[in-house]
Amino acid sequence: MYLTTFIIVSIAPAHADVVYPVLIESRSDNSQGAVRVTKDYIVNLEESSVLGENLFFTDTRNGEATHELMDTTSLRNSVYENSEQAASFTITKTPTGIEMEGYLNFTHGIKPLRINDRSGRIPHKIFPLPKLEGETDLDLPVDKHLNESPEPRADAELPDVWRPEMYIMIDSSINEYLRGIKRLQVLYIVRLMNIVNAIFKTVKKPKINLQLVGIYRSQTKQDEPFIVEEDGFIDAYKTLDAFAIFTRSTSFARHADFYFLLAGRRLGKRNQQGKLSSTILGSANSGQVCVRGQNVGIGVEVPLLYTTFTNIAHEIGHLLGSTHDGNPPLFKGHPGAVSCKPPPSHIMSITPGPPFTFSNCSEKEMEYILKLRGKECWMTHSYYDFFNVTKEVAGSKITPEKFCQRINPEQHVSAEGGNCSITCIRKRNTFKRYPAPFGYPCGDGKRCWFGTCEDITNKTQSDICAG
């Protein structure tokens, strides 16, 4: 609240809601720099917290899926966040200045104005984030097998930080709205999930920091067989079931703890007369994180309206174990949230709102589900960890075949290695060459390091790893 007021007051003497952001370059290797939004309002730049070293981009067209392993370095130089102010935005450098677009906080956004300005700088508009009308989601019946789950160990030692790994799917409508441009879509998703993650980073025990491991794009309606569309709406209940089946039977580029579908069309649920009506904004299987074939959610996302991040956080909250504030436990042993009936409003209220945090009940519910799922769920299986830089891993666990199979399982035919590069041979006699992973043997006792063959004895982790 204070930040919002400060922004409005600081720009009032000039042009009301028009500002001219300026990039302040950093002189330190430990800083990303900052943006001066107004004379008195400066936002320090931080790298995106949802991005790891690599990101898979899965593209589907005419029933054929391809997987690309993206280096996130360039992405991290374009999309930023600020944890303290809950900001997430992209920065594009132009000959006349920077274009800044995204979220200044949970209540206000910023975007460039496509107009000429005599100052030679790029004018931007600060605007209050709108709100979509509709119920957040529908209360789904809890699967019977949840009641059969063993009680979590009371002495289970949780990690300090839980990084639930997510694969974000975008439907053909979002693909079309963002003009089918892959980089534009990736930056948009990272910016969106940064602001969603800012909500989860308010959780105290354990700390939660979402990790984006893959983006899955459907280019046409024929590429999204899991979407059930009737009477001009996506049937949320049927689509969620079909989406769950799809994730169970599909070979993704890598494992994820949950899969979330962003739909650029209206979701609907059936009323008492059996007709679909657009009254909901999302749906998810509660407590099903890390349960293969059930760990799915869906949410409405209208690009460039900046409206749905609270609803997306709400649905992911369900996946991680939270029920609606005020509701009873999901199953025997689950804490439930009866003692947290609104007001005040939180993210897991029926209508999420400020202060954009989880209630104490929600935090206890997520902690319970994390203990229930166990160590396999809270371990991070990132690409970086998979190709860990140890001689043991480099010598015995990484092969050209495994590397290429991991990157593009649908198109993989064979693989070849040499000169610190790996060539993946694909269907239809096509191929793609990648730098060999760090630590890959290249002869004479040397290893590949940033694409060159070097002696990396002092650069790798110890061969004797603590398990």
Descriptive tags:
467 residues, Collagenase (Catalytic Domain), seven-stranded antiparallel sheet, seven-stranded mixed sheet, 11 helices, 29 strands, disordered C terminus
Description of the structure:
By secondary structure, this protein is an alpha+beta fold. It folds into three domains: 2-48 and 72-128, no CATH class; 144-378, Collagenase (Catalytic Domain) (3-Layer(aba) Sandwich); 388-454. Helix content is 22%, strand content 29%. The protein is built from eleven helices and 29 strands. A hairpin with a 4-residue loop joins strand 10 (97-103) and strand 11 (108-112). Helix 4 (182-200) crosses helix 6.
Topology:
Elements: H1 2-11, E1 18-19, E2 22-24, E3 34-36, E4 42-44, E5 46-47, E6 51-61, E7 64-71, H2 73-76, E8 79-82, E9 87-94, E10 97-103, E11 108-112, E12 124-128, E13 161-162, E14 165-170, H3 172-177, H4 182-200, E15 207-208, E16 211-218, E17 229-230, E18 233-235, H5 236-249, E19 258-263, E20 267-270, E21 276-280, E22 282-284, E23 296-300, H6 309-319, H7 360-373, H8 375-378, H9 383-386, H10 391-397, H11 400-407, E24 412-418, E25 421-426, E26 431-435, E27 441-443, E28 446-449, E29 452-454
Parallel strand pairs: 6-16, 13-15, 14-16, 14-19, 18-20, 19-23
Antiparallel strand pairs: 1-12, 2-3, 3-4, 5-8, 6-7, 8-9, 9-10, 10-11, 11-12, 17-18, 20-21, 22-23, 24-25, 25-26, 27-28, 28-29
Helix pairs in contact: 4-6
Domain Peptidase M12B: 162-382
InterPro entries: MetalloPept_cat_dom_sf, Peptidase_M12B
Pfam family, one: Reprolysin
